[in-house]
Amino acid sequence: MRPVHSALFCRLLPAPFSLALRSLVLVLLCITPRCQAVQAENVTVLEGGTAQISCRLQNYDGSIVVIQNPRRQTLFFNGTRALKDDRFQMVLFTPRLVRITLTNVSVSDEGGYFCQLYTDSTHHQVATLSVLVPPETPTVEVKQEAVEGGEVELTCVSPRSKPAATLRWIRNGREIPGVVSQQDNGKTFSVSSTIRIPVERKDNGAALSCEAFHPALGGQKRVRHYRLDVYFAPTVRIIPPSGILREGDSLILTCSITGNPLPRSIQWSKINDTLPERAEISGPTFQISRLSQTHNGTYLCQAQNNYGRAADHYTLLVYDNVSLITTVPSTPKTTQPITSHPVTPTLLTPNFTQDVEDPGAVVETHSAVPYAVIGGVLALLVFTVICVLIVTIWCSVRQKGSYRTREPILAWY
Ligand SMILES: *[C@@H]1O[C@H](CO)[C@@H](O)[C@H](O)[C@H]1NC(C)=O
Ligand SMILES: *[C@@H]1O[C@H](CO)[C@@H](O)[C@H](O)[C@H]1NC(C)=O
Ligand SMILES: *[C@@H]1O[C@H](CO)[C@@H](O)[C@H](O)[C@H]1NC(C)=O
Ligand SMILES: *[C@@H]1O[C@H](CO)[C@@H](O)[C@H](O)[C@H]1NC(C)=O
Ligand SMILES: *[C@@H]1O[C@H](CO)[C@@H](O)[C@H](O)[C@H]1NC(C)=O
Ligand SMILES: *[C@@H]1O[C@H](CO)[C@@H](O)[C@H](O)[C@H]1NC(C)=O
Ligand SMILES: *[C@@H]1O[C@H](CO)[C@@H](O)[C@H](O)[C@H]1NC(C)=O
């Protein structure tokens, strides 16, 4: 066993030291129980961090201390650098403690570091260096686009961690169990968690998150937020104008559209007819100024995306000026809109309807008359009472005694 060991050891050792070491290994033997000893401590460090590898010495008597890497290449030979790797530094060499540091640790640095002491016999201890690789914030991959009524497949991926990260899918504070798969990439792991969830249009924009947990994150987690993008066919609704439309009025229709993706173009049409020349279309708004009865008909708003199409219709009935007269109760005012219609029809119509149909104004003028009458009557009453009083007093002054009994009776008038 020993010759094989030392042969390998010497092969890996830089030339100047191999000869000296070979002789030492062969010469030095430890038989007594009170010999020198060395102790090594295991180290765990984050990737990119700095590791301290320490060897504790007991009863050190000035022997040669050799520190080797996991490939058994000598890093330091009794304090002197042997391997050309500036990431290793000897920071301490006392009779009790030898310490080296390794900066910018990578997973390939993992393994057992040998603290070897050449005395009567060869003592060695191994310090195991473990490297943790915390996961980056995971990513979300969509394997299949989400269409309403279907399912969406989402995969949360953490491409590199050591040990393997734990992934959790969360929606509304609840975990959605996923199918976890783990792949070993040599020293690190790639982890993924896949969920399949049914989607409706109400799920569009719903928030999900994928959380990655790892011992190196110390209770913290790396979270990726994801919003569902659910595709669905459009819905179309025409918002109709309120009230009756008469000749000369303006028609404004607004088409309210949903859909994902939102339909880019809206088609306006008239069933069994062409659109009137005066029709003005700007996106969701359809307008005809100065309506006439030839505009009667059914108008259609249509929209489509890759997932379907939808339409809504509006039936326009333009009432003539004659029916206008019959619908308006106040006769003296009807002459006004008829004569002024050709000049500024759109402006006068609302003014006119306001004058006639505002019930508040009518109630106000009616209530003003009774109040004036009541006030006048009250004033008259008070005046009469005062007059009667004056007359009574005057009478009582002139005819004292005999008419006194009448006073209370007179006061009742
Ligand atoms: C150091 O790590 C090695 C390998 O993981 C293990 O066998 C050994 O028991 C550890 N030593 C100590 C002191 O924890
Ligand atoms: C090894 O290094 C230590 C500390 O510098 C020194 O005391 C000791 O004499 C050295 N041993 C040999 C054999 O050179
Ligand atoms: C650390 O090591 C990695 C490769 O392991 C290298 O790409 C990086 O540049 C190093 N960083 C420093 C600061 O030396
Ligand atoms: C359009 O014309 C067809 C046939 O000419 C008729 O059956 C249908 O009722 C018409 N539609 C409307 C809305 O007028
Ligand atoms: C338009 O509709 C109104 C209301 O129904 C009706 O009185 C009128 O005759 C129609 N005009 C035409 C040209 O269809
Ligand atoms: C109604 O008024 C419009 C505009 O003032 C006018 O062109 C039309 O001839 C009138 N129609 C009738 C039936 O009076
Ligand atoms: C309403 O009528 C008044 C006069 O009666 C006029 O000054 C005003 O411009 C009219 N407003 C509209 C919107 O037609």
Automatic annotation (TrEMBL):
<dbReference type="GO" id="GO:0043184">
    <property type="term" value="F:vascular endothelial growth factor receptor 2 binding"/>
</dbReference>
<keyword id="KW-1015">Disulfide bond</keyword>
<dbReference type="InterPro" id="IPR013162">
    <property type="entry name" value="CD80_C2-set"/>
</dbReference>
<dbReference type="InterPro" id="IPR013783">
    <property type="entry name" value="Ig-like_fold"/>
</dbReference>
<dbReference type="GO" id="GO:0016020">
    <property type="term" value="C:membrane"/>
</dbReference>
<dbReference type="Pfam" id="PF13927">
    <property type="entry name" value="Ig_3"/>
</dbReference>
<keyword id="KW-0393">Immunoglobulin domain</keyword>
<dbReference type="GO" id="GO:0061041">
    <property type="term" value="P:regulation of wound healing"/>
</dbReference>
<feature type="transmembrane region" description="Helical">
    <location>
        <begin position="371"/>
        <end position="397"/>
    </location>
</feature>
<dbReference type="Pfam" id="PF08205">
    <property type="entry name" value="C2-set_2"/>
</dbReference>
<dbReference type="InterPro" id="IPR003598">
    <property type="entry name" value="Ig_sub2"/>
</dbReference>
<keyword id="KW-1133">Transmembrane helix</keyword>
<keyword id="KW-0812">Transmembrane</keyword>
<feature type="domain" description="Ig-like">
    <location>
        <begin position="234"/>
        <end position="317"/>
    </location>
</feature>
<dbReference type="Pfam" id="PF07686">
    <property type="entry name" value="V-set"/>
</dbReference>
<dbReference type="GO" id="GO:0044291">
    <property type="term" value="C:cell-cell contact zone"/>
</dbReference>
<feature type="domain" description="Ig-like">
    <location>
        <begin position="33"/>
        <end position="130"/>
    </location>
</feature>
<dbReference type="InterPro" id="IPR036179">
    <property type="entry name" value="Ig-like_dom_sf"/>
</dbReference>
<keyword id="KW-0472">Membrane</keyword>
<dbReference type="InterPro" id="IPR007110">
    <property type="entry name" value="Ig-like_dom"/>
</dbReference>
<keyword id="KW-0732">Signal</keyword>
<dbReference type="InterPro" id="IPR013106">
    <property type="entry name" value="Ig_V-set"/>
</dbReference>
<feature type="signal peptide">
    <location>
        <begin position="1"/>
        <end position="37"/>
    </location>
</feature>
<keyword id="KW-0677">Repeat</keyword>
<dbReference type="InterPro" id="IPR003599">
    <property type="entry name" value="Ig_sub"/>
</dbReference>
<protein>
    <submittedName>
        <fullName>Cell adhesion molecule 4</fullName>
    </submittedName>
</protein>
<feature type="domain" description="Ig-like">
    <location>
        <begin position="135"/>
        <end position="224"/>
    </location>
</feature>
<dbReference type="GO" id="GO:0007156">
    <property type="term" value="P:homophilic cell adhesion via plasma membrane adhesion molecules"/>
</dbReference>
<dbReference type="GO" id="GO:0035020">
    <property type="term" value="P:regulation of Rac protein signal transduction"/>
</dbReference>
